[in-house]
C-alpha cells in the first residue's frame, strides 16, 4: 500500500533534494526511507501516547539499580549512572552531580603526544597546584604563597600573570593588595583584619584560577578504535569548543543546561534524549526511543528546559484539577478559587476524577444519530 505524505513533509523533502542536489535514483531511495520513517512514527487517532510513554519509561525504571557511580571503561572518571542519573535528567537539575565531557580531536591532532598536550592545556590549574607550603605571616598579617617555578614553567605559566589571575578572583576584594616578590605571592588586606578572616581568605586565594578551563579538575586520555579521546571531570563546553585541535562537531557533555546555554534548546532536547537512552541502555533496558522523545519534547516545548514535576511540566498544566491531583492540592484549589479560574475538563486526569468518559480512544468522539424521516 502506497503511503501519502502530508504537504509539509513533501515541501521539506523537495527543499532537501535541491539542497543536497540528489539525482533521480537518490531521490527515489530517499523518498522510500522518508515514507518508512513516516509510517513508523504514525499512531492511531485518540491513542493515549502520554500514558503509554509514562508506563514504558517508568516500568523499566523500577528495575534499575541504585548504583550512583560507574567507572567509564579504563578512564576512571566517576559518573552518576542508573536511577539517580535518570532522576537527574527528568528533574532538569541545574548542575549534574558529576559533570563530564567527552572531547574528540581533529585528525591531525590524533596522536598520543598531541592529545596529552591538549589535556594538560584543558585541565584547570589553581594557585594551590603550583604552590609550595602556603602560610600566614602573623607579623605582617599577610598570606604568603611560594611558587614552585619548575611546575609553573612546565604548565606554561608566566609568574607575572599570577598576580593578575589572583586579582581577578571574585573572593579577593578591592581592599586586598596582591604582589609578587622573590617568587612568592603575597596577599595583604589593606584594612584591619583578624586571623580568622586571613584563614578564610587563604582558602579562597589558593583556589584562584591560573590557567586551563575553569571547572575541569581532571582529564584522562584514552584510546578507542585508533582514536584518542579526552574524558574530563567537570564541564566547560563554551570554552572547550574554542580549544585548538578539538573537534567541535563531536564534543559532548552530560550538563544539559550548559548545552542549552551554548547550543540552544534543540541541542538540549537531543541531549535529554541521548542521555536518557544511554542511561537505560547501560542498565540493559530496552525502551522505544519515541517514548523518550515525547518526554524530551514536553520538557523543551516552551523554549526552556522544564522539569517533570510540580515546578515544571506537572505544575504548569492548564487544568486546575490536574495540577491539584499531582501535588500541593490545597494551594492549587485556593489559587484557582481566588482568581476565578475555569477548568474545561479537556484532559484525562480531571475527567477520571469526576467519573466522566475520558477524551481518548473512542471517548474522543461524539455519536450523532440521525433517524430516517
Principal-axis shape: extended
The CATH architecture of the largest domain would be Orthogonal Bundle
Under CATH, the topology of the largest domain is which?
A: PTS-regulatory domain, PRD
Q: Compute the number of strand runs.
A: 12
Element pattern in H and E: HHHEEHEHEEEHHEEHEEEHEHHHHHH
Report the sheet with the most strands, covering strand number, pairing sense and barrel closure. Answer: 4 strands, antiparallel
pLDDT averaged over residues: 86
Strand order of the largest sheet: 10-11-3-12
CATH class of the largest domain: Mainly Alpha
Beta-strand residue percentage: 5-15%
| Fraction of residues in helix | 40-55%
- Structural class per helix/strand content? alpha+beta
Helix count equals 15
Taking the alpha carbons of the first and last residues, their distance comes to 40 Å
Task: Provide a quick synopsis of the model.
The protein is an alpha+beta fold and 373 residues long. The protein has helices spanning 7-20, 24-41, 49-61, 82-90, 112-122, 149-154, 159-168, 195-206, 237-240, 256-263, 265-282, 289-300, 320-326, 329-338, 348-353; strands at residues 69-71, 78-80, 100-104, 125-126, 135-137, 142-146, 176-180, 184-189, 209-211, 218-224, 227-233, 252-253. Strand 10 (218-224) and strand 11 (227-233) form a beta hairpin.
Highlighted features:
373 residues; 5 domains; Alpha-Beta Plaits; 42% helix; 4-stranded antiparallel β-sheet; alpha+beta; 15 helices; PTS-regulatory domain, PRD; 12 strands
Plain-language structure description:
With 373 residues, the protein is of the alpha+beta class. The chain folds into five domains: 7-41, no CATH class; 50-97 and 254-300, PTS-regulatory domain, PRD; 100-123 and 215-253, 2-Layer Sandwich (Alpha-Beta Plaits); 125-211, Gyrase A, domain 2 (2-Layer Sandwich), CATH 3.30.1360; 317-364, DNA polymerase, domain 1. Helices cover 42% and strands 14% of the residues. It contains 15 helices and twelve strands. The strands form four sheets. The chain has a four-stranded antiparallel β-sheet with strand order 10-11-3-12. Strand 5 and strand 6 form a beta hairpin. Helix 4 runs antiparallel to helix 11 (265-282). Residues 70-75 have low confidence and may be disordered.
Amino acid at each position: 500500500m502506497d503511503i501519502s505524505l502530508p504537504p509539509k513533509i513533501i515541501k521539506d523533502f523537495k527543499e532537501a533534494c535541491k539542497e543536497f542536489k540528489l539525482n533521480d535514483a537518490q531521490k527515489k531511495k530517499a523518498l522510500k526511507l522518508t515514507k518508512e520513517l513516516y509510517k513508523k512514527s504514525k499512531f492511531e487517532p485518540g491513542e493515549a501516547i502520554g500514558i503509554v510513554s509514562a508506563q514504558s519509561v517508568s516500568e523499566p525504571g523500577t528495575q534499575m539499580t541504585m548504583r550512583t557511580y560507574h567507572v567509564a571503561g579504563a578512564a576512571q572518571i566517576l559518573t552518576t549512572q542508573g536511577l539517580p542519573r535518570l532522576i537527574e535528567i527528568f528533574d532538569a537539575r541545574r548542575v549534574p552531580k558529576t559533570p563530564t565531557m567527552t572531547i574528540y580531536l581533529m585528525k591531525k591532532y590524533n596522536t598520543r603526544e598531541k592529545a596529552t598536550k591538549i589535556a594538560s592545556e584543558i585541565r584547570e590549574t589553581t594557585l594551590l597546584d603550583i604552590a609550595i607550603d602556603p602560610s600566614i605571616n602573623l607579623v605582617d598579617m599577610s598570606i604568603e604563597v611560594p611558587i614552585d617555578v619548575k611546575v609553573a614553567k612546565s604548565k606554561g605559566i608566566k609568574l607575572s600573570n599570577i598576580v593578575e589571575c589572583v586579582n581577578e578572583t571574585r573572593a579577593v576584594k578591592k581592599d586586598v593588595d596582591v604582589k609578587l616578590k622573590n617568587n612568592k605571592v603575597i596577599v595583604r588586606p589593606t584594612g584591619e583584619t583578624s586571623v580568622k578572616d586571613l584563614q578564610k581568605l587563604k582558602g579562597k586565594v589558593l583556589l584562584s584560577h591560573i590557567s586551563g578551563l575553569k571547572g575541569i579538575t581532571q582529564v584522562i586520555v584514552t584510546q578507542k578504535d585508533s582514536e584518542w579521546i579526552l574524558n574530563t571531570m567537570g564541564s566547560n563546553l563554551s570554552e572547550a569548543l574554542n580549544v585548538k585541535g578539538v573537534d567541535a562537531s563531536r564534543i559532548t557533555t552530560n550538563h544539559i543546561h550548559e548545552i542549552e546555554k551554548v547550543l540552544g534548546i534543540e541541542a538540549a532536547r537531543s541531549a535529554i534524549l541521548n542521555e536518557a537512552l544511554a542511561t537505560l541502555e547501560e542498565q540493559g533496558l530496552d525502551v522505544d526511543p519515541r517514548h523518550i522523545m515525547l518526554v524530551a519534547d514536553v520538557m523543551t516545548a516552551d523554549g526552556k528546559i522544564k522539569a517533570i514535576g510540580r515546578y515544571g511540566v506537572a505544575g504548569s498544566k492548564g487544568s486546575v484539577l490536574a495540577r491539584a491531583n499531582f501535588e500541593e492540592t490545597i494551594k492549587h484549589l485556593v489559587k484557582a478559587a481566588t482568581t476565578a479560574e475555569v477548568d474545561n475538563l479537556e484532559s484525562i486526569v480531571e475527567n477520571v476524577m469526576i467519573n466522566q468518559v475520558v477524551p481518548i480512544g473512542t471517548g474522543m468522539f461524539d455519536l450523532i444519530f440521525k433517524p430516517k424521516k
